[in-house]
Amino acid sequence: MSDCFDIAIIGAGPAGMSAAITASAGGASVIVLDEKARAGGQIYRNVTASPLPSPEVLGPDYMKGRQLIEAFDNCAAEKLYQASVWHVGDNGEILFSYNNETRRLAAKEIIVTCGAMERPFPIPGWHLPGVMSAGSAQVMLKAEGIVRDDAIFVGTGPLLYQIVAQYIDLGVPVRALIDTTPWSSYASSARYTLDAATKPGMVVKGLGLLGKIAKAGIPVYRAATGLAIAGEGKATSIRFESGGKNYQLKADHFFLHQGVIPNLNMSRALGLELEWSEQQLCWKPKLDTWGQSSVPSVAVAGDGSGIVGADGAAAMGDIVALNKLFRLEKISEQERNQRATPSQRTLDSLNSFRRFIDHLYRPIDECRIPQQEDTVVCRCEERTLADLKQGFELGGKGPNDLKGMTRCGMGPCQGRQCGHTVSELLAQWRNQPVADVGYYRLRSPMKLLSLTEMSAFSEITPRPVYEDAMADKEAV
Protein backbone atom coordinates (compact mmCIF):
# COMPACT_ATOMS: atom_id res chain seq x y z
CA MET A 1 0.00 0.00 0.00
CA SER A 2 1.33 3.44 -0.92
CA ASP A 3 1.03 6.53 1.25
CA CYS A 4 1.11 8.67 -1.89
CA PHE A 5 -1.86 9.43 -4.17
CA ASP A 6 -1.39 8.97 -7.88
CA ILE A 7 -3.15 12.27 -8.62
CA ALA A 8 -4.25 15.20 -6.46
CA ILE A 9 -6.71 17.64 -8.02
CA ILE A 10 -7.09 21.10 -6.51
CA GLY A 11 -10.52 22.48 -7.32
CA ALA A 12 -13.90 20.83 -7.94
CA GLY A 13 -15.28 22.98 -10.73
CA PRO A 14 -16.00 21.62 -14.23
CA ALA A 15 -12.32 20.93 -15.00
CA GLY A 16 -11.57 19.30 -11.65
CA MET A 17 -14.68 17.12 -11.69
CA SER A 18 -14.09 15.99 -15.27
CA ALA A 19 -10.45 15.18 -14.53
CA ALA A 20 -11.40 13.19 -11.42
CA ILE A 21 -13.99 11.14 -13.31
CA THR A 22 -11.54 10.23 -16.07
CA ALA A 23 -8.52 9.62 -13.84
CA SER A 24 -10.33 7.49 -11.25
CA ALA A 25 -12.00 5.42 -13.98
CA GLY A 26 -8.51 4.77 -15.35
CA GLY A 27 -7.39 3.10 -12.14
CA ALA A 28 -5.51 5.98 -10.51
CA SER A 29 -5.86 6.79 -6.83
CA VAL A 30 -7.30 10.31 -6.91
CA ILE A 31 -8.12 12.91 -4.28
CA VAL A 32 -9.94 16.17 -4.96
CA LEU A 33 -9.59 19.16 -2.64
CA ASP A 34 -11.99 22.09 -2.76
CA GLU A 35 -12.45 24.99 -0.37
CA LYS A 36 -16.23 25.13 -0.82
CA ALA A 37 -18.82 22.95 0.91
CA ARG A 38 -19.77 21.07 -2.27
CA ALA A 39 -18.64 20.52 -5.84
CA GLY A 40 -19.55 22.74 -8.78
CA GLY A 41 -17.19 25.69 -8.78
CA GLN A 42 -18.54 29.16 -9.47
CA ILE A 43 -20.53 28.25 -12.59
CA TYR A 44 -22.40 25.34 -10.96
CA ARG A 45 -22.40 26.69 -7.41
CA ASN A 46 -25.19 25.06 -5.34
CA VAL A 47 -26.92 23.65 -8.40
CA THR A 48 -27.78 20.51 -6.37
CA ALA A 49 -28.77 22.49 -3.27
CA SER A 50 -30.11 25.81 -4.52
CA PRO A 51 -31.76 28.22 -2.06
CA LEU A 52 -34.07 29.31 -4.87
CA PRO A 53 -37.50 27.64 -5.07
CA SER A 54 -37.04 27.22 -8.84
CA PRO A 55 -33.33 27.20 -9.71
CA GLU A 56 -34.29 26.56 -13.34
CA VAL A 57 -34.78 30.32 -13.61
CA LEU A 58 -30.99 30.65 -13.72
CA GLY A 59 -30.98 28.92 -17.10
CA PRO A 60 -30.14 25.59 -18.76
CA ASP A 61 -26.39 26.24 -18.73
CA TYR A 62 -26.54 26.32 -14.95
CA MET A 63 -28.85 23.32 -14.58
CA LYS A 64 -26.77 21.01 -16.79
CA GLY A 65 -24.15 21.06 -14.07
CA ARG A 66 -26.27 18.57 -12.13
CA GLN A 67 -25.33 15.78 -14.51
CA LEU A 68 -21.59 16.44 -14.17
CA ILE A 69 -21.81 16.70 -10.38
CA GLU A 70 -23.76 13.44 -10.19
CA ALA A 71 -21.08 11.65 -12.24
CA PHE A 72 -18.41 13.20 -10.03
CA ASP A 73 -20.17 12.15 -6.84
CA ASN A 74 -20.35 8.59 -8.13
CA CYS A 75 -16.73 8.31 -9.27
CA ALA A 76 -14.09 6.55 -7.16
CA ALA A 77 -12.05 9.68 -6.38
CA GLU A 78 -11.81 10.74 -2.75
CA LYS A 79 -13.34 14.16 -2.13
CA LEU A 80 -12.46 16.59 0.60
CA TYR A 81 -14.51 19.78 0.83
CA GLN A 82 -13.85 22.94 2.85
CA ALA A 83 -10.16 22.20 2.42
CA SER A 84 -8.15 25.37 1.87
CA VAL A 85 -4.87 24.56 0.12
CA TRP A 86 -2.07 26.92 1.20
CA HIS A 87 1.06 25.15 -0.04
CA VAL A 88 1.88 22.97 -3.03
CA GLY A 89 5.42 21.76 -3.56
CA ASP A 90 6.97 20.61 -6.80
CA ASN A 91 7.80 17.40 -4.90
CA GLY A 92 4.09 16.54 -4.71
CA GLU A 93 3.54 17.74 -1.14
CA ILE A 94 0.24 19.52 -0.47
CA LEU A 95 -0.58 21.30 2.79
CA PHE A 96 -4.08 22.56 3.51
CA SER A 97 -6.36 23.74 6.31
CA TYR A 98 -9.22 21.46 7.25
CA ASN A 99 -11.36 21.67 10.40
CA ASN A 100 -8.92 24.22 11.86
CA GLU A 101 -6.01 21.83 11.43
CA THR A 102 -3.19 21.47 8.94
CA ARG A 103 -3.38 18.33 6.84
CA ARG A 104 -0.71 16.95 4.54
CA LEU A 105 -0.81 14.61 1.59
CA ALA A 106 1.56 13.64 -1.20
CA ALA A 107 0.79 12.93 -4.85
CA LYS A 108 2.82 11.78 -7.83
CA GLU A 109 0.93 14.08 -10.15
CA ILE A 110 -0.97 17.33 -9.47
CA ILE A 111 -3.74 18.98 -11.48
CA VAL A 112 -4.50 22.60 -10.61
CA THR A 113 -8.06 23.61 -11.49
CA CYS A 114 -8.53 26.81 -9.50
CA GLY A 115 -10.65 28.50 -12.14
CA ALA A 116 -10.99 32.19 -12.87
CA MET A 117 -11.53 35.43 -11.03
CA GLU A 118 -13.09 38.64 -12.23
CA ARG A 119 -10.80 41.14 -13.86
CA PRO A 120 -10.06 44.15 -11.64
CA PHE A 121 -12.03 47.28 -12.54
CA PRO A 122 -9.87 50.10 -11.10
CA ILE A 123 -11.95 53.21 -11.70
CA PRO A 124 -12.40 56.02 -9.15
CA GLY A 125 -14.59 54.81 -6.29
CA TRP A 126 -14.46 51.08 -7.10
CA HIS A 127 -13.22 50.45 -3.55
CA LEU A 128 -16.23 52.04 -1.83
CA PRO A 129 -18.79 49.99 0.16
CA GLY A 130 -21.74 49.27 -2.09
CA VAL A 131 -19.54 48.43 -5.08
CA MET A 132 -19.11 44.75 -5.90
CA SER A 133 -18.44 42.58 -8.92
CA ALA A 134 -21.18 41.06 -11.04
CA GLY A 135 -19.75 37.68 -10.06
CA SER A 136 -20.47 38.58 -6.44
CA ALA A 137 -24.07 39.23 -7.41
CA GLN A 138 -24.20 35.70 -8.82
CA VAL A 139 -22.56 34.23 -5.71
CA MET A 140 -25.17 35.88 -3.48
CA LEU A 141 -27.94 34.66 -5.76
CA LYS A 142 -26.70 31.07 -6.07
CA ALA A 143 -25.48 30.62 -2.50
CA GLU A 144 -28.10 32.47 -0.46
CA GLY A 145 -30.84 33.56 -2.84
CA ILE A 146 -29.98 37.21 -2.09
CA VAL A 147 -30.56 39.99 -4.63
CA ARG A 148 -30.18 43.78 -4.62
CA ASP A 149 -33.09 45.87 -5.86
CA ASP A 150 -32.46 48.83 -8.15
CA ALA A 151 -28.76 48.08 -8.63
CA ILE A 152 -26.72 49.52 -11.48
CA PHE A 153 -24.68 47.06 -13.56
CA VAL A 154 -21.56 48.42 -15.24
CA GLY A 155 -19.09 47.00 -17.76
CA THR A 156 -19.09 44.54 -20.62
CA GLY A 157 -19.31 40.85 -21.44
CA PRO A 158 -21.67 37.87 -21.39
CA LEU A 159 -21.65 37.37 -17.60
CA LEU A 160 -22.81 40.95 -17.04
CA TYR A 161 -25.76 40.52 -19.41
CA GLN A 162 -26.55 37.11 -17.97
CA ILE A 163 -26.91 38.29 -14.38
CA VAL A 164 -29.07 41.23 -15.49
CA ALA A 165 -31.29 38.78 -17.42
CA GLN A 166 -31.49 36.53 -14.35
CA TYR A 167 -32.60 39.48 -12.26
CA ILE A 168 -35.29 40.19 -14.86
CA ASP A 169 -36.52 36.58 -14.73
CA LEU A 170 -36.67 36.78 -10.94
CA GLY A 171 -38.67 40.01 -11.07
CA VAL A 172 -35.92 42.06 -9.44
CA PRO A 173 -35.87 45.71 -10.58
CA VAL A 174 -32.64 46.93 -12.19
CA ARG A 175 -31.91 50.66 -12.21
CA ALA A 176 -29.67 50.69 -15.31
CA LEU A 177 -27.07 48.89 -17.41
CA ILE A 178 -24.00 50.96 -18.29
CA ASP A 179 -22.26 49.16 -21.15
CA THR A 180 -18.60 50.05 -21.77
CA THR A 181 -18.29 48.07 -25.02
CA PRO A 182 -17.02 50.63 -27.57
CA TRP A 183 -18.68 50.85 -30.95
CA SER A 184 -15.32 50.07 -32.55
CA SER A 185 -15.34 46.59 -30.99
CA TYR A 186 -18.37 45.58 -33.04
CA ALA A 187 -16.50 46.49 -36.21
CA SER A 188 -13.17 44.94 -35.19
CA SER A 189 -14.77 41.67 -34.09
CA ALA A 190 -16.49 41.28 -37.47
CA ARG A 191 -13.34 39.72 -38.90
CA TYR A 192 -13.89 36.82 -36.48
CA THR A 193 -17.37 36.08 -37.82
CA LEU A 194 -16.28 32.62 -38.98
CA ASP A 195 -15.16 31.85 -35.43
CA ALA A 196 -18.54 32.98 -34.12
CA ALA A 197 -20.25 30.73 -36.68
CA THR A 198 -18.69 27.66 -35.06
CA LYS A 199 -21.13 28.07 -32.15
CA PRO A 200 -24.38 29.52 -33.54
CA GLY A 201 -26.26 28.46 -30.43
CA MET A 202 -24.07 30.68 -28.25
CA VAL A 203 -24.59 33.61 -30.61
CA VAL A 204 -28.37 33.13 -30.41
CA LYS A 205 -28.15 32.88 -26.63
CA GLY A 206 -26.21 36.14 -26.40
CA LEU A 207 -28.64 37.96 -28.65
CA GLY A 208 -31.46 36.57 -26.53
CA LEU A 209 -29.96 38.07 -23.37
CA LEU A 210 -29.64 41.49 -25.00
CA GLY A 211 -33.17 41.22 -26.35
CA LYS A 212 -34.55 40.34 -22.93
CA ILE A 213 -32.84 43.36 -21.38
CA ALA A 214 -34.23 45.67 -24.08
CA LYS A 215 -37.74 44.22 -23.76
CA ALA A 216 -37.70 44.72 -19.99
CA GLY A 217 -37.29 48.44 -20.53
CA ILE A 218 -34.11 48.75 -18.48
CA PRO A 219 -32.21 51.93 -19.39
CA VAL A 220 -29.04 50.94 -21.29
CA TYR A 221 -26.22 53.45 -21.79
CA ARG A 222 -23.82 52.27 -24.49
CA ALA A 223 -20.13 52.92 -25.21
CA ALA A 224 -19.81 54.56 -21.81
CA THR A 225 -16.52 56.24 -20.86
CA GLY A 226 -15.19 58.42 -18.05
CA LEU A 227 -16.69 56.27 -15.30
CA ALA A 228 -16.31 57.38 -11.68
CA ILE A 229 -18.20 56.25 -8.59
CA ALA A 230 -18.78 58.86 -5.89
CA GLY A 231 -19.82 58.82 -2.26
CA GLU A 232 -18.70 59.71 1.26
CA GLY A 233 -17.95 56.45 3.05
CA LYS A 234 -20.35 54.61 0.71
CA ALA A 235 -21.06 54.59 -3.01
CA THR A 236 -24.08 56.72 -3.86
CA SER A 237 -23.74 57.62 -7.55
CA ILE A 238 -21.84 57.00 -10.76
CA ARG A 239 -20.77 59.56 -13.37
CA PHE A 240 -20.05 58.71 -17.01
CA GLU A 241 -20.38 59.85 -20.60
CA SER A 242 -22.47 58.10 -23.25
CA GLY A 243 -23.54 59.27 -26.69
CA GLY A 244 -21.90 62.66 -26.21
CA LYS A 245 -23.85 63.36 -23.00
CA ASN A 246 -22.77 63.37 -19.35
CA TYR A 247 -24.81 61.44 -16.81
CA GLN A 248 -24.91 60.95 -13.06
CA LEU A 249 -27.07 58.11 -11.75
CA LYS A 250 -27.81 57.42 -8.10
CA ALA A 251 -28.06 53.96 -6.53
CA ASP A 252 -27.13 52.04 -3.39
CA HIS A 253 -25.53 49.10 -5.17
CA PHE A 254 -23.18 48.93 -8.16
CA PHE A 255 -22.00 45.72 -9.81
CA LEU A 256 -18.91 45.94 -12.05
CA HIS A 257 -17.70 43.43 -14.63
CA GLN A 258 -15.33 43.40 -17.60
CA GLY A 259 -14.57 39.73 -18.07
CA VAL A 260 -12.66 37.11 -16.13
CA ILE A 261 -8.98 36.16 -15.96
CA PRO A 262 -7.15 33.07 -14.63
CA ASN A 263 -6.74 32.81 -10.86
CA LEU A 264 -2.95 32.73 -10.81
CA ASN A 265 -1.94 32.65 -7.17
CA MET A 266 -1.42 28.91 -6.89
CA SER A 267 0.25 28.63 -10.29
CA ARG A 268 2.60 31.49 -9.44
CA ALA A 269 3.40 30.22 -5.93
CA LEU A 270 4.31 26.89 -7.54
CA GLY A 271 6.80 28.75 -9.72
CA LEU A 272 5.08 27.86 -12.98
CA GLU A 273 6.28 29.82 -15.98
CA LEU A 274 3.72 32.41 -17.12
CA GLU A 275 3.07 34.07 -20.46
CA TRP A 276 1.10 37.18 -21.40
CA SER A 277 -1.98 36.64 -23.58
CA GLU A 278 -2.59 39.68 -25.74
CA GLN A 279 -5.89 38.17 -26.87
CA GLN A 280 -7.29 37.89 -23.35
CA LEU A 281 -5.16 40.67 -21.80
CA CYS A 282 -4.02 38.51 -18.92
CA TRP A 283 -1.21 36.36 -17.59
CA LYS A 284 -1.66 32.60 -17.82
CA PRO A 285 0.52 29.53 -17.20
CA LYS A 286 2.68 28.42 -20.12
CA LEU A 287 1.37 24.94 -21.00
CA ASP A 288 1.69 22.33 -23.71
CA THR A 289 -1.30 20.83 -25.53
CA TRP A 290 -1.82 18.39 -22.63
CA GLY A 291 -1.95 21.07 -19.96
CA GLN A 292 1.55 20.26 -18.69
CA SER A 293 3.32 23.18 -17.07
CA SER A 294 6.99 24.04 -16.69
CA VAL A 295 6.99 21.82 -13.57
CA PRO A 296 6.77 18.24 -14.94
CA SER A 297 4.44 16.84 -12.26
CA VAL A 298 2.01 19.78 -12.43
CA ALA A 299 -0.73 20.38 -15.00
CA VAL A 300 -3.31 23.16 -15.13
CA ALA A 301 -6.81 22.75 -16.54
CA GLY A 302 -9.87 24.92 -16.97
CA ASP A 303 -10.09 28.68 -16.73
CA GLY A 304 -6.95 28.75 -14.59
CA SER A 305 -5.04 27.94 -17.79
CA GLY A 306 -6.66 30.72 -19.83
CA ILE A 307 -10.37 31.45 -20.14
CA VAL A 308 -12.15 28.57 -21.89
CA GLY A 309 -15.62 28.53 -20.27
CA ALA A 310 -17.41 25.72 -18.43
CA ASP A 311 -17.69 23.30 -21.35
CA GLY A 312 -14.10 23.97 -22.39
CA ALA A 313 -12.95 23.44 -18.80
CA ALA A 314 -14.67 20.04 -18.64
CA ALA A 315 -13.09 19.02 -21.96
CA MET A 316 -9.69 20.18 -20.79
CA GLY A 317 -10.05 18.28 -17.51
CA ASP A 318 -10.59 15.09 -19.48
CA ILE A 319 -7.56 15.78 -21.71
CA VAL A 320 -5.24 16.53 -18.78
CA ALA A 321 -6.40 13.47 -16.85
CA LEU A 322 -5.75 11.17 -19.81
CA ASN A 323 -2.22 12.52 -20.06
CA LYS A 324 -1.70 11.92 -16.35
CA LEU A 325 -2.82 8.32 -16.79
CA PHE A 326 -0.26 8.01 -19.57
CA ARG A 327 2.48 9.50 -17.39
CA LEU A 328 1.54 7.01 -14.66
CA GLU A 329 1.81 4.19 -17.24
CA LYS A 330 -1.81 3.19 -16.79
CA ILE A 331 -2.64 3.70 -20.47
CA SER A 332 -0.54 3.75 -23.62
CA GLU A 333 0.27 6.84 -25.65
CA GLN A 334 -1.93 5.53 -28.44
CA GLU A 335 -4.89 5.07 -26.09
CA ARG A 336 -4.35 8.51 -24.62
CA ASN A 337 -4.36 10.14 -28.04
CA GLN A 338 -7.38 8.21 -29.25
CA ARG A 339 -9.51 8.84 -26.17
CA ALA A 340 -8.57 12.52 -26.01
CA THR A 341 -9.61 13.28 -29.60
CA PRO A 342 -13.31 14.11 -28.92
CA SER A 343 -12.44 16.45 -26.04
CA GLN A 344 -9.68 18.10 -28.05
CA ARG A 345 -12.12 18.77 -30.90
CA THR A 346 -14.59 20.30 -28.43
CA LEU A 347 -11.88 22.47 -26.90
CA ASP A 348 -10.57 23.61 -30.30
CA SER A 349 -14.06 24.63 -31.38
CA LEU A 350 -14.70 26.55 -28.16
CA ASN A 351 -11.33 28.29 -28.39
CA SER A 352 -12.23 29.44 -31.91
CA PHE A 353 -15.46 30.95 -30.61
CA ARG A 354 -13.48 32.46 -27.74
CA ARG A 355 -11.47 34.55 -30.21
CA PHE A 356 -14.67 36.26 -31.30
CA ILE A 357 -15.84 36.87 -27.72
CA ASP A 358 -12.45 38.15 -26.57
CA HIS A 359 -12.30 40.74 -29.34
CA LEU A 360 -15.92 41.83 -29.07
CA TYR A 361 -15.79 42.32 -25.29
CA ARG A 362 -12.19 43.46 -24.99
CA PRO A 363 -12.14 45.76 -21.92
CA ILE A 364 -11.19 49.34 -22.72
CA ASP A 365 -7.88 50.76 -21.50
CA GLU A 366 -9.35 53.33 -19.12
CA CYS A 367 -11.23 50.62 -17.19
CA ARG A 368 -8.10 48.45 -16.84
CA ILE A 369 -5.37 51.04 -16.36
CA PRO A 370 -6.16 53.79 -13.81
CA GLN A 371 -6.14 57.34 -15.13
CA GLN A 372 -6.57 59.53 -12.04
CA GLU A 373 -3.94 59.98 -9.31
CA ASP A 374 -6.32 59.24 -6.42
CA THR A 375 -7.70 56.01 -7.91
CA VAL A 376 -7.08 53.07 -5.59
CA VAL A 377 -5.05 50.30 -7.22
CA CYS A 378 -4.41 48.00 -4.24
CA ARG A 379 -7.59 47.75 -2.19
CA CYS A 380 -5.97 45.72 0.60
CA GLU A 381 -3.22 48.26 1.34
CA GLU A 382 -5.14 51.29 -0.01
CA ARG A 383 -2.37 52.24 -2.42
CA THR A 384 -3.34 54.77 -5.07
CA LEU A 385 -2.00 55.45 -8.54
CA ALA A 386 -0.05 58.38 -7.10
CA ASP A 387 1.58 56.07 -4.51
CA LEU A 388 2.66 53.66 -7.26
CA LYS A 389 4.04 56.44 -9.44
CA GLN A 390 6.14 57.65 -6.53
CA GLY A 391 7.41 54.11 -5.91
CA PHE A 392 8.29 53.76 -9.59
CA GLU A 393 10.23 57.03 -9.57
CA LEU A 394 12.17 55.83 -6.50
CA GLY A 395 13.31 52.68 -8.30
CA GLY A 396 10.38 50.27 -8.27
CA LYS A 397 10.73 49.34 -11.94
CA GLY A 398 9.40 45.76 -11.67
CA PRO A 399 6.32 44.29 -9.94
CA ASN A 400 8.28 42.88 -7.00
CA ASP A 401 10.40 46.02 -6.59
CA LEU A 402 7.27 48.15 -6.63
CA LYS A 403 5.65 45.85 -4.09
CA GLY A 404 8.60 46.37 -1.75
CA MET A 405 8.48 50.14 -2.25
CA THR A 406 4.74 50.61 -1.78
CA ARG A 407 3.28 47.45 -0.16
CA CYS A 408 1.00 47.17 -3.22
CA GLY A 409 0.20 43.45 -3.44
CA MET A 410 1.11 42.60 0.18
CA GLY A 411 -2.46 42.41 1.48
CA PRO A 412 -4.70 39.42 2.23
CA CYS A 413 -5.61 38.90 -1.46
CA GLN A 414 -1.88 38.56 -2.26
CA GLY A 415 -2.09 40.62 -5.42
CA ARG A 416 -5.18 39.05 -6.96
CA GLN A 417 -6.87 42.44 -7.30
CA CYS A 418 -3.86 44.51 -8.34
CA GLY A 419 -1.35 42.18 -10.06
CA HIS A 420 -2.55 42.65 -13.63
CA THR A 421 -3.07 46.38 -13.13
CA VAL A 422 0.50 46.77 -11.86
CA SER A 423 1.90 44.85 -14.84
CA GLU A 424 0.05 47.06 -17.32
CA LEU A 425 0.95 50.27 -15.48
CA LEU A 426 4.64 49.37 -15.44
CA ALA A 427 4.53 48.47 -19.13
CA GLN A 428 3.09 51.91 -19.83
CA TRP A 429 5.64 53.74 -17.68
CA ARG A 430 8.58 51.73 -19.03
CA ASN A 431 7.30 51.91 -22.61
CA GLN A 432 7.70 48.14 -22.94
CA PRO A 433 5.39 45.20 -23.71
CA VAL A 434 3.59 43.74 -20.70
CA ALA A 435 5.29 40.41 -21.44
CA ASP A 436 8.65 42.03 -20.61
CA VAL A 437 7.43 43.45 -17.29
CA GLY A 438 6.40 40.22 -15.56
CA TYR A 439 4.12 39.45 -12.65
CA TYR A 440 4.42 39.24 -8.88
CA ARG A 441 6.58 36.53 -7.32
CA LEU A 442 4.41 34.65 -4.82
CA ARG A 443 5.26 32.21 -2.05
CA SER A 444 3.44 29.96 0.38
CA PRO A 445 1.26 30.20 2.33
CA MET A 446 -1.18 31.04 -0.43
CA LYS A 447 -4.05 31.57 2.04
CA LEU A 448 -4.31 33.12 5.46
CA LEU A 449 -4.01 30.61 8.30
CA SER A 450 -3.66 30.76 12.05
CA LEU A 451 -0.88 29.43 14.29
CA THR A 452 -3.48 27.08 15.78
CA GLU A 453 -4.02 25.50 12.37
CA MET A 454 -0.30 25.06 11.85
CA SER A 455 0.22 23.46 15.27
CA ALA A 456 -2.33 20.69 14.66
CA PHE A 457 -0.93 18.42 11.95
CA SER A 458 -2.00 15.12 10.43
CA GLU A 459 -1.42 13.04 7.27
CA ILE A 460 -3.92 11.88 4.66
CA THR A 461 -3.15 8.77 2.64
CA PRO A 462 -5.09 6.85 -0.03
CA ARG A 463 -7.71 4.40 1.15
CA PRO A 464 -6.63 0.78 0.87
CA VAL A 465 -8.17 -1.05 -2.05
CA TYR A 466 -9.98 -3.49 0.25
CA GLU A 467 -11.84 -0.60 1.90
CA ASP A 468 -13.25 0.42 -1.45
CA ALA A 469 -14.27 -3.17 -2.16
CA MET A 470 -16.00 -3.49 1.22
CA ALA A 471 -17.80 -0.18 0.69
CA ASP A 472 -19.08 -1.41 -2.69
CA LYS A 473 -20.18 -4.71 -1.12
CA GLU A 474 -22.09 -2.93 1.67
CA ALA A 475 -23.75 -0.65 -0.87
CA VAL A 476 -25.04 -3.73 -2.72
Q: What is the fourth-level CATH superfamily of the largest domain? A: FAD/NAD(P)-binding domain
Which overall shape is indicated by the principal axes computed on the Cα atoms?
A: globular
Question: In CATH terms, what is the architecture of the largest domain?
Answer: 3-Layer(bba) Sandwich
CATH class of the largest domain equals Alpha Beta
Number of E-type strands: 22
CATH topology grouping of the largest domain: FAD/NAD(P)-binding domain
Provide the gyration radius in Å.
23 Å
Biggest beta sheet attributes: 8 strands, mixed
Oligomerization state of this entry? Answer: single chain
The N- to C-terminal Cα distance equals: 25 Å
Overall pLDDT level: 93
Overview of the structural elements:
The protein is of the alpha/beta class and 476 residues long. The chain has three domains: 5-117 and 261-357, FAD/NAD(P)-binding domain (3-Layer(bba) Sandwich); 120-258, FAD/NAD(P)-binding domain (3-Layer(bba) Sandwich); 369-437, BFD-like [2Fe-2S]-binding domain (Arc Repressor Mutant, subunit A, Orthogonal Bundle), CATH 1.10.10.1100. 38% of the residues lie in helices and 22% in strands. It is built from 18 helices and 22 strands. It has helices spanning 14-25, 60-63, 65-74, 134-144, 158-169, 183-188, 193-196, 200-215, 265-269, 309-327, 333-360, 365-368, 385-393, 399-406, 419-430, 434-437, 451-455, 465-475; strands at residues 5-10, 30-34, 78-81, 84-88, 93-98, 101-112, 116-118, 131-133, 151-156, 174-179, 220-221, 225-230, 237-242, 245-250, 254-258, 260-262, 274-277, 282-285, 298-300, 376-378, 383-384, 457-459. Strands 1, 2, 3, 4, 5, 6, 19 and 22 form an eight-stranded mixed β-sheet that branches. It has a five-stranded parallel β-sheet with strand order 8-15-9-10-11. α1 (14-25) links the parallel β1 (5-10) and β2 (30-34). It is globular.
